[in-house]
Amino acid sequence: MTACQACRSDFSTTAIAAPKDFEYFVERAVPTEVRQCSTCGSLFQHPWPDKAEALAFYPADYQNYERPDVPLLSKLLSMAQRRAAQTFVRQVGQDARMLDFGCGDGSFLGYLAAEGMTDLVGYEPNLRETERETRPKVTRVGSLRELRDAGRTFDVIRMHHVIEHLTELDSTMQGLRHLLSPNGVILVQTPNVATATWRLFGQNWGPLHYPYHTVLFTPQGMEAGSQRWGLKIEATTNTPMPTGWAMSLENLIKRSLGSRRRGRLRVYGLLVAAALPMSYAEAAIRPSKAAVLDYTLSAG
Ligand SMILES: [Zn+2]
Q1: Are 41 and 194 in contact (CB under 8 A)?
Q2: Cα of 40 from ligand 1 centre, angstroms
Q3: What is the pLDDT of residues 11-21, one digit of tens each?
């Protein structure tokens, strides 16, 4: 049985028969395809990896941009994060109790602390003991059970490019729903399959990000998933984001050159800059078809 991970429909077709990782060249031990749901259009890996397999996908240098060979990119990213943090605090307020689910190195929480937020928790799987206290004013945890046992609830749970990495999708989303305060929301930012660049780039589409991305949603797939998780979509907005275009172009370049360079090419910063007008146009012309969507989910 090959049920769609988004809407659970049993009808799907092969979208990509032999997906490739152009970033770190990780290969799954089992032959894998990316399937597209015939009902909701979402994409998902088949066979579906379990948690242990998926955690092992990530190499030590996975998307570590604090490197001297990509100075433009790390500078752009930190500027974008600071601006995003300022906007975020204006939206949710300084007093919001906040969980950043899938916080990575916790840098976004650090920017929120600098903007005056005080109740900040970050979750990251496989958190090393040494990483727990790297940012002042931020509590870091490695399991949701720690939060449940402490009776914690949150006004805002942020999932920034995280939901598409999950392997235990339903139990994670249902677990997060139980951590919401009465008026709390889960803010999910994730790539959108219902976008022109998926059809344009196909197997080179940057957001495929195989094998790290297990499931990629259409709005219809997110609607079906939310219902199953006991959540309601309160709003859908979009974020112009040039990285999907830039990663697609980078994949095309790497594929045509047969490049085995790990991570980003040196020209990636330039590709991002070149993609900026395209991503803004795409988001402005047909917002629901933007490459990246922001869903506000509540417990309804
Ligand atoms: Zn589906």
Answers
A1: yes
A2: 4
A3: 999 999 999 99
Q: Which residues contact 190 (CB under 8 A, 6 or more apart)?
A: 159, 161, 162, 163, 164, 216, 217, 222, 292, 293, 295
Domains of the chain, residue spans: 59-298
Distance 34 CA to ligand 1 centre (A): 13
224 CA distance to ligand 1 middle (Å): 8
pLDDT tens string 43-98: 999 999 999 999 899 888 787 655 555 667 678 778 888 999 999 999 999 999 99
Q: Which pLDDT tens digit goes with each residue over 26-38?
A: 999 999 999 999 9
What spacing in Å lies between the alpha carbon of 194 and ligand 1's midpoint? Answer: 12
CA of 281 to the centre of ligand 1 (A): 28
Distance 42 CA to ligand 1 centre (A): 5
| Strand partners for 296 | 187, 235
From the candidate CATH numbers 1.10.10.60, 3.40.50.970, 3.40.50.150, 3.30.930.10, the one assigned to the domain spanning 59-298: 3.40.50.150
Q: Quote the ligand 1 centre to 13 CA distance (angstroms).
A: 11
Question: Within 10 Å of residue 270's Cβ, how many Cβ atoms?
Answer: 14
* Residue appearing with tokens 């890996």: 45
Q: How far is the CA of 216 from the centre of ligand 1 (A)?
A: 10
Ligand 1 centroid from CA 35, angstroms: 10
Residue 214, CB-side half-sphere exposure with 13 Å CA sphere = 19
So what's the pLDDT on residue 69? 56
What pLDDT score was predicted for residue 129?
58
**Do residues 226 and 280 touch, judged by C-beta distance below 8 A?**
no
pTM listed for this prediction: 0.91
